[in-house]
Specification:
Shape: globular
Structural class: alpha+beta
Strand content: 25-35%
Length: 138
């Protein structure tokens, strides 16, 4: 089974319910393990929030965020493409303290994502954007 969906939204956290509702299509037929589905939703929302709050922080609200999700037989891929500045995800993950030691309230989302995703990267695209790429097996 291959299912591919696409959404374009503004750089606006108020679009979060729309993003989550759109993503529900990926759970048809339902993934048997509800925890895996919850983790997929968490990855999507953490990624979207990070793009809005960090990658697009100095960009107008009209700046589009493009989201693509593909469901394969054994995993889901999520791509969240932004127009923000370059960002070294691996370096940031190395610099961010573990949950127990992190009392600064920032950076925990990336740690959560790196813990529950099977693959997580932030790569440049051919059209001078950056794409947060996530894979979660089920």
């Amino acid at each position: 089974m291959n299912k591919k969906i696409y959404l374009k939204v503004n750089t606006d956290l108020t679009a979060s319910p729309q993003v989550l509702s759109w993503f529900e299509q990926m759970n048809q037929p339902p993934i048997p393990d509800k925890q895996i589905w919850w983790q997929c939703q968490t990855l999507l929302m953490e990624g979207f929030t990070n793009i809005v709050e960090h990658a697009h922080i100095n960009l107008p609200i009209e700046t589009p965020i493009e989201i693509e999700a593909v469901r394969f037989d054994e995993y889901i891929e999520i791509r969240i493409c932004s127009q923000g500045e370059p960002f070294d995800l691996e370096q940031k993950l190395r610099q961010t303290t573990e949950f127990e030691e992190n009392d600064q309230g920032r950076g925990r989302g990336l740690k959560i994502m790196s813990t529950i995703a099977d693959k997580l990267s932030y790569e440049p695209t051919v059209d001078n954007r950056y794409c947060l790429f996530i894979i979660k097996y089920y």
